Amino acid sequence: MNSAIIVAAGQGVRMGGSVSKQYMPLDGMSILGRTLTAFVECCFFEEVIVVVAAGDREYCRRQVINRLDLKQAIRIVVGGRDRQESVFNGLEASNGQDDDTVLIHDGVRPFVSEDILTQCLAAVKAHGACIAAVPASDTLKQIGSGGKIAQTLPREGVWLAQTPQGFRLGLARAAHRQARAEGFSGTDDAQLVERLGQSVAVVPGNRANIKITTPDDLLLAEAIWRHGRHPS
Question: The domain that contains 13 carries what CATH number?
Fold first, then answer.
């Protein structure tokens, strides 16, 4: 069984405005709606869970899911106080078994492609854990005191993590449960899995697979959509 957990419980503070970023429109459909559509229309997942803020459950159902006319039911789970707790809630709500596969994805990455999803599912089967990522292309600078450059870091071997991040479901649950018990907060799900000593494979992502968090990101997303670089 393949499960997808779409995390959309953030408040979108950096975006500004009265509507959370995941509910903002992208060419007539909410950003979250486009993300959910990408996961459902590929037909790879027996279970799709969207994790939303407690106060957004009914709004998400009425204004997003009910407007999509999708052939697969989408379950809504209430998130926590931060992304890590929201993912934890999604994992605990899944009906999958330990050996099943789960992909965890940001609700505000609407340009995930079917090719990335295919490669991530295959990588989990082969390795147990994977992330989509792209190699760093800019020069990396470490900034010290006073806002001045402390050193230039080599970018060879440095990749920028994206989502989806995929795992055997039992492994993801174990990693999140241990982090929760120890009060550890990570920057992504892969970091929690790495703490268990599990190696994580890297699947080539796509630079169009952006995370929309600021007004500038939304402008870029609109340009990507207009030029047809969205999932087919």
Answer: 3.90.550.10
With a cut of 60, say whether residue 14 has pLDDT above it.
Answer: no
* pLDDT for residue 177: 98
Give the pLDDT score at 205.
96
The answer to whether residue 232 is domain-embedded is: no
> pLDDT per residue over 43-68, tens digit each?
999 999 999 999 999 999 999 999 99
- Tell me which residue range forms the domain holding 163: 2-226
Domain count, the chain: 1
Summarised one tens digit per residue, pLDDT across range 108-143 is 999 999 999 999 999 999 999 999 999 999 999 999
Residue 200 forms part of a structural domain: yes
Residue at 231 is within a domain:
no
Per-residue H/E/C for the chain:
CEEEEEEECCCCCCCCCCCCHHHCEECCEEHHHHHHHHHHHCCCCCEEEEEECHHHHHHHHHHHHHHCCCCCCCEEEECCCCHHHHHHHHHHHCCCCCCCEEEEEECCCCCCCHHHHHHHHHHHHHHCEEEEEEECCCCEEEECHHHCEEEEECCCCCEEEEEEEEEEHHHHHHHHHHHHHHCCCCCCHHHHHHCCCCCCEEEECCCCCCCCCCHHHHHHHHHHHHCCCCCC
**Residue 74 lies inside a defined structural domain of this protein:** yes
pLDDT at 200 over 50: yes
